[in-house]
């Protein structure tokens, strides 16, 4: 069983530990993505310029930052998609802002950026640190301690020169970009506010329109069963007119996407599989109880048994802590099934009352190696010096803190005092530290050096246990998997298009997941997870030859057969491709209008409460609506309905239709504030609506990004 947790180190040891950990990250899940970035095909362009390398670097930096902030070594497909989208949006936003700022005479030079970075670091010593740098420092402090965090930040450029620690530098680079982007945005909108001018007629119009109404209100869904007999029809001319009027607004594709159907064949174990798994677990448990633990572990190829001691809080598996701590040492843990996912069995083989952490100070003595040729000592010299220092400190001839000044490099931290927890520490090291009395000295031979520890203090002893645990996946057998794959393969060979796939799935009882406007970089289709390979296929050249995919094996969770319907590329969609969408929308709007007419007929002889009971809804009293307000301020009532509500007479309940809902409203009172003499209040309100609020600024940024010409083939990053 693997130990849980991590250990903090200082000075030279810190660089080694961080380097090894981050090297694992770098060589892990990014390796596949990095290889694909070398593809000769252009993956992305912005305003006609290729940005493959820039995007690659920023994605890698953002990934490193997310790892640091979330303390994770890898991400699932959905998280990876979110990082990709964050990177892409940030790149487009920065380029749009750079273009706008350059037009206003403000460009960020390399020297300005370097000064900005220096100011961010310097802010950490003030009472109001830069929020981005503060977040970075806090994340480092959580992992490596406050002193080490400041040491890392102070020498951050050095971390960029070492492949083993470059992940920290990449995280820093990402954080600087985020901070710089916020700075650019603030400058742009500050300049924009100072250049805005709102005319008197416009301000007067706002004063006139800035009405509020106190109403009683209820919302009715036109699609409820009560209106199933109401049907609406639309003509081809109405649909074409709608398309011409709204094609630039509604039918311009700004992100590649597709529609597809996916037939899903879950890989579940059969009853025979479950019986075979349980029989195997119980047979192994019987063998386990007949042998010594080390003998059994070697037989199974698991190597040495974990000798770490654990306290109850370290055990994360539900109910396992009670099994381990409420039985005598030497007790077996009988086979048990956990959430239909795994079987477990094991043994509690040791127990002791031990401190959970030890406070130490240390002197690190690295010796010359191939990786550290500049070290001051040879291996033999470092060992002799470590033994000598042990004797000097143990004999009270000099304190470890005084000796640090002589025997530690100037670049190392002077204060190496730290608490070392048992959780995550090398068992042999921790056992020797707690076996050393307070004030005593222990020399540890590390990889590439010796560390002289003086034990300063320790926590009060608590009960801890040693245990071994073996787990068995509850999964379908190879025979079951082969049988399910055969069914999926036969299914794929029996259909030639999406309609046939849906029809055949209905006949065979196969689940079909519908994907509508699935982005090219997404990782899910509807609620179906881990779909990256399926989506990559959807945007590949193979689809043009055959809209039916081969059988996908999705992480042994399910087999899938996909059928492509539509791939939407950049530009305006053709009328024939969106005709059905337009028809559905116009029918829904017409039906809402017809429902409103029917309800108005009922209101001639009924009150609002009776109508509410009839259609299973509720009346909200004293609802304040604003003519110039946002949707969220108006209880979700859309602007189409708001425009009609403010034309209604008072104290006459009326049904009006919005885009999707019908609203029954009784207007009790309408108020119009008096126009201010100098119109300053109205002008400030207009300025606030346009650039003074985050939502308004995001609307402008989105518009600027939409004006940027892009070619987004980033899905090729995933295609082999």
Instruction: Give the beta-strand count.
Output: 20
Rg for CA atoms: 34 Å
The fraction of residues in strands falls at 15-25%
Residue share in helices? Answer: 40-55%
Q: What kind of sheet is the major sheet? A: 4 strands, antiparallel
The span between the termini is 36 Å
Specify the structural class: alpha+beta
Task: Return the average pLDDT rounded to an integer.
Answer: 84
User: Which word captures the global form?
Assistant: globular
Number of helices: 26
Identify low-pLDDT runs: 1-40
Q: Which strands sit side by side, in order, in the main sheet?
A: 17-3-19-18
Structure characterization notes:
The protein is of the alpha+beta class. The protein is 47% helix and 19% strand. The chain is built from 26 helices and 20 strands. The strands form six sheets. It has a four-stranded antiparallel sheet with strand order 17-3-19-18. A four-stranded antiparallel sheet has the order 13-5-15-14, with helices on both faces. A four-stranded antiparallel sheet has the order 9-8-11-10, sandwiched between helices. Helix 6 (131-144) crosses helix 7 (146-154) and helix 11 crosses helix 22. The protein starts with 10 loop residues before the first helix and ends in an 8-residue tail after the last strand. Mean pLDDT is 84; it is low at 1-40.
